[in-house]
Each structure stands twice: as structure tokens, then as C-alpha cells.
């Protein structure tokens, strides 16, 4: 394989890694709240329940499968993220994912994504920054902030990196925590389909993704205790209801019925996720929970 081929594989896998982080981060910050209509979106996060669990989770990331066209024969790495905050102080997420990829010629590429976000408790403000490294060389850096303007609910984005720009996002747009809030509410209420537009600052801060989430039948507490990883057993995840969730990400306005990629996971009522799988078409990555630590929660005053 040529070096150019390896670069294409690396770029594609970096994109998949980035989107995985964005979704997992959003789900980690979620709570069982009521879903809002477009004009109510800014109020979602302000009603976060006390059972929202600040935590630090580590996942082992491995190659689940790959077609020959992907040029990938192996993926090994680790994803770490830490979620803290409250409806009063806002929600913070600090994440890092490092993976080593091996191609069909035995060449390896090391990808490293670092991301930090903060979302105001009432859903009106969102800050984001991320940096991507390939083989220890800094690549894309994105930094910006978004504000939801009342009463129109138009989201105004100000980007400072990679270049200064201003964007207006009209229509219903969810920030990550808001989307997760709505997703868990749908699951709790027994609904199986949720379509939403999400803005999380990814793709250099310029893209809003169309998403379709399919929510499976609830797994009742204790139903899969024997299948839990050691950290999940230790933190008694099996005592909570959970749902299998599959979310497809679609390119806006292209009319394609096939998602650009799809993320599957088991979502627990307290916002923790396990059994991660991201399918990018020609390869897929599996995430296994290897560590889970609950962090101290701060009550609103």
C-alpha cells in the first residue's frame, strides 16, 4: 500500500474515533429528563436530576472487523473521559482517545484525540476545543463557542480556530447534553425512535449532523448481571435499567438513506455506557469498559 493509502485510512479512522468520542461524551452527561420541543430545547439541561452521575470511564478500543478495502488489519487503543458538573455549574467533559492502527503492509499510525467541552446548565451556551495528533504531530485544532439566542432559538457560533468564523444555525439544534437528555427520556417512556440535529463542535466546528436513534426494549435490572465487566459489576450497573441504542449519523441534505457511520451501545439510566461499537462501513471499532469511577457530585445551592 502506498503512503497515500495509509493516510486515507488514518484520516477515515480519525474521523470515526472523533465521532465515537462525541457520542459517548454526550451519553455520559445525560440524565433521565423530559424531552422538549424545539422552542423548549434551551431548558432541558436545567432540569437535570440528582441521579446524574459524574464519573471517569476507561474503554479498551479494538478492531471489531474490517473489509479489505479499508486497508486496516488492526486497531488497539484506549479511550478515557471524565464527566463532572451540575445543572447550576454546567457540564464539563474532558476526553482523550489514543489508538494505534496497523495497515495491510504492517505499517502503524498513532492517532490521538484530545477534547474538552462545557455546556451551560440551561442549554444556552456551549464551549468546545479539540486537538488531533497523527504520529505525534499536531494536526487539526478546533476551538469555539455557541450561544442559543432567545427567542428565535437560533444558535450563533463563533469559531476562533482553525480560523475565525461566525455561523448561524437555524431550526432545532441540540447540544450534546441536551440530545442525551432527550434520548434517555425517550428510552424511559418506551419510545423506539428519535431523530435530531446535533451540534457538538466537531468537523472544525462547521457541521450539524442529522441523526436517527433506534432504542431497543428495556433490559430490566439484574437481567444481564453475568455479562457485565468487572468494573460494571463493582459499580452495580446491573441494578439499573438499560437500553440497547443505535444511532446513525447522516450527512445533511444529501438524501442518502445509509448513514455515514453508526454507533451502537448499551445506555444505562444514570448516563453510563458500555458495549460500544462504531461501524464506519468498511471497518468497525469495539469499546470495552475496563474502569469506572464515580466522582463526587456537587449539589446546586
TrEMBL record:
<dbReference type="InterPro" id="IPR015000">
    <property type="entry name" value="EipB-like"/>
</dbReference>
<feature type="signal peptide">
    <location>
        <begin position="1"/>
        <end position="36"/>
    </location>
</feature>
<keyword id="KW-0732">Signal</keyword>
<dbReference type="Pfam" id="PF08904">
    <property type="entry name" value="EipB_like"/>
</dbReference>
<protein>
    <recommendedName>
        <fullName>ATP-binding protein</fullName>
    </recommendedName>
</protein>
